Automatic annotation (TrEMBL):
Protein name: NADH-quinone oxidoreductase subunit C
Organism whose genome encodes this protein: Streptomyces armeniacus
Domain of life: Bacteria
Taxonomic lineage of the native organism: Bacteria, Bacillati, Actinomycetota, Actinomycetes, Kitasatosporales
PANTHER family: NADH DEHYDROGENASE [UBIQUINONE] IRON-SULFUR PROTEIN 3, MITOCHONDRIAL (PTHR10884:SF14), NADH DEHYDROGENASE UBIQUINONE IRON-SULFUR PROTEIN 3 (PTHR10884)
GO molecular function: NADH dehydrogenase (ubiquinone) activity
Domain NADH:ubiquinone oxidoreductase 30kDa subunit span(s) in chain numbering: 75-204
Amino acid sequence: MSEPSEPSEPLETPGPAGAEEPAGAAGASESPESAETAETAEPQPQEPVGWLPRPADAIFGEGATAEEAYALLTVDVPPDRWIPALAAARDELGCTYFDWLSAVDEPGTGFRVCAHLAALPALRPAGGGAPVPLRRLVVRTTVPHEAPVLPTATGVYAGAAWHERETHEMFGVDFTDHPHLERLLLPDEFEGHPLRKDFVLAARVAKAWPGAKEPGESGHGGPKRRQMQPPGVPDPNEWGPLKGQLPPAPARPARGRAAAAGERPARRARTASAGSASQQQAPEAGADADAPAPPRRARRAGEGSASQRAAAPATSDEQQPAAPAPENTHTATHQLLSFDGGVRCV
């Protein structure tokens, strides 16, 4: 009886020819890892801009960017870094002078709130050296139109209280924890925020202008000029309580004979030899009207005009009249003006 043979190793089944793993498969398997690596890669550090001693994000916090143009340094920060950025500008950069605070309505973006600060020049630095020039800084942030809210900057710059009140009533930006966020310039019954881009200046639409400011508005029947809408005032026939109820503006009537034909007549062409209308002679009776006009009379410059031409010169047979003999010059009478205003003879 024969001994049982040892189990043989499993044979590898050869695959079809050319079924090697493509090179792209390895790359495809590595693509998610490379994408995660790109996402987790740290951003490159920023460089100092302008007169900043360090990068903007190192001074004002994460998300801060800086740019300089026309000797003005501008730093943009997120809304949650608004107060820390102002404090850093005052404490680290020496911007102790608060100039103004306002906003700009950017359609599709939001309200861009700006604060203009300055570091006053030091004529005699404490440590010696050259005088420090004036340095200006604008700190900006953007709040959405749906929720325009920012913390008040009065804790950093007390002078911002007046500017925040004006920005609140002109743009509708709320500054939380403001000591007295009330109206500053507008009356209490005013509705809306006039410096927003969506605010319509409807004064000339809802109420007629008092007095006769334009010709024809006084009702005396005079001609009326074409009215020009000032900036921000829409057409009353397109916006307002009289929308679609007013007749279209009349077109300016044509002048002269063109009013009937609707077109301006062509300008009559005339050559230089034909002369002007006053120089053309009227046609004689019985003459052909279609006959060409006689040529214009030519005259040399030496002949002069009709008023400058003298009488015909005398012939050689005629004698010229003798000129009268002059009187004795020694006995001529001269009139001199005397000192007393009279006339005396010498």
